Amino acid sequence: MSTLEHKVVLITGAARGIGAATARAIVARGAKVVLLDIDPGPLDELASELGPDKALAAVTDVTDLGAVEQATAAGIARFGGIDIVMANAGIASYGSVRRVDPAAFRRVIDINLTGVFHTVRAALPSLTSRKGYILVVSSLAAFAPAPGLAAYGASKAGVEQFASALRLELAHEGVDVGSAHMSWIDTPLVQDAKSDLSSFGEMLAALPGPLSRTTSVEACVDAFVRGLERRQRRVYVPGWVGLVGWLKALVTTPVAEGRTLALVPRVLPKMDAEVAALGRSTSARNLASGAVRPESDGG
Prior knowledge:
The chain is of the alpha/beta class. 53% of the residues lie in helices and 12% in strands. α1 (17-27) crosses α8 (217-230) and α4 (102-129) packs parallel to α5 (150-170).
């Protein structure tokens, strides 16, 4: 019997990618899920697929604490409480610090970092009473910076620190906290970046060894499910990401940065030109779903 059986799991960023695939996998193991996302179409489709006795969907912007609290309360009313939170909602922006749309940059921080705080804050009373578990989805980007993705990297480093502080705050109350760190996963976020920007593909291809490879969503979900079942402190996808975490002080040394520094003068201007041609600093999917507003306050 899975340790997830009869558990209630709240997942943000649940409509697509890792969030949706993890929801399917844990429902198959007997869990019930509260699904939060800003995009109603795929979210409602997933909830219908899983069934009303197993899933509740709530269209929610995680940057709105009141909305997250309302969605969490609806989940508690339906299923009796929240045992596990998987704070997974995240987006990325494109372009150098010099050229990225400030509104898109700010939205990345709001969703990826403040949204995690809102999610935890809303569910914490139930998690504490049920001695639950929180998995904060960070990234390899918390350890290894990438030019043109400063907002994403900063947000993921921020949520890693948030998870570590939260672990210290909640341990005496019986609540466990983990953080997940993935390399490139074949999700809509990575697919959209590859489709929009040939420069992103060039940057990826130039990374050394396994850093250039993309991992399947299925492999990521397998690792996430194990992490949720075992209440792990760290989830690494693939496993070698853990080594990068241990060696992160070396990743930003002049020697380690040499290959990237040689690439930047050619690839970063190309990325900025591609972003300017697109007329947006994020994916079309993010704009269509409302995750990022089309208006900009400069750039």
